[in-house]
Design brief:
Bound molecules: (4S)-2,6-dioxohexahydropyrimidine-4-carboxylic acid, zinc ion
Strand content: 15-25%
Structural class: alpha/beta
Distance between the termini: 15 Å
Radius of gyration: 21 Å
CATH topology of the largest domain: TIM Barrel
Shape: globular
Number of strands: 19
Largest sheet: 9 strands, mixed
Helix content: 25-40%
Oligomer: single chain
Amino acid sequence: MNSYLFRNVSVLGAAPTDLLIRDGVVAEAGAGLSAPDALVVEADGLVALPGLVDLHTHLREPGREDAETVETGSRSAALGGYTAVCAMANTSPVADTAGVVEQVWRLGREAGLVDVQPIGAVTVGLAGERLAELGAMADSAARVRIFSDDGHCVADPRLMRRALEYVKAFDGIIAQHAEEPRLTEGAQMHEGEVSTRLGLTGWPAVAEEAIIARDVLLAEHVGSRLHVCHVSTAGSVEVLRQAKARGVRVTAEVTPHHLLLTDVRAETYDPVFKVNPPLRTATDIAALRAALVDGVIDIVATDHAPHTVEDKECEWVYARPGMLGLETALSIALDVLGPEWDLIAERMSRAPARIAGLTEHGHDPAPGAPANLVLVDPAVRRVIEPAEMASRSRNTPYARMTLPGRIVATFLRGEATVLDGKAVK
Ligand code: DOR
Ligand code: ZN
């Protein structure tokens, strides 16, 4: 096992110091360390953060290996500065049994680039009719704690209640894709002035807000933990703010794209901007950014959603919703928040690790901490090139945009997964 000596690294923006990484942990910190056996990383100008943790990644395996595999998605994650990702259950077959979640977990171990924590489905086949084997998934080798039908909403309030009650026994979480399906039939984009002009069927903000309002009340009623996926509207933020003020056990995420892009992008009719929930308005973006800063929104999660060329480069109405996110998330966070390293570490590493119960992750790089960490060069501005991405898919909405920050190195349990900006394996 290699040891690494980082020279003159800034831990979360603090004055430069040396860090020694040995035996999977941060062994020492201080000026002028020496370790003859260690590989030296000259880290002047680089910032060390705890390895990022993504609570919402679509890895597509099993079933759509033409769009992504556990291995390609893991490489994409490591290159984005992640050391752990939670893999959504909408695979084929669906991750609704102990067998499938164990398969995904094992593939993650074999790839060895990030810790892959499977999320289990709430309902059998994501069909919204019968509860899946939540207990068996929790007891499996994958030790599932988060359950989600993401891609679909658990729309039936009685099923939602039973799911929340069921996971309470092991302090599990139901992660809801909040979308009242009766209000979004045929929806193509955000319902508003732009959808009217383009003549596309709208996805109204209230379809999200109504489900979040219902679910925080259900979570309050049964005393269980609710997590709200990809919050996208100013109204949702207000519902969450009130629920949190009452002490409801609810956490929430926002995606990088909902922090940066608006529904005006649909004017291009380029399906790379089609996503669910849809891109909203500048007013929503302002509310989401403020909520991310004040903590009503707990975390940034990517909703990394790879899709093949066939599923994306077609007419808008036929295209699948979803965007790549893992390799650009930190740059978007830097763009939106500025070099607020402590806030970035909290929203992209510590808090998601806490929510998911990933106890080895989300620790600031300090002596004794597991060496799951990332080195960032904040001074670099880079042009996003889809062809250069490690993901098997190319559907990034940031193509040819110039964004701040570059991931220089990522370490998982003290071993480099990324060095000099390149994946190690
Ligand atoms: O845009 C989306 N894509 N939203 C979802 O909820 C699912 C995801 C996917 O699986 O592609
Ligand atoms: Zn979703």
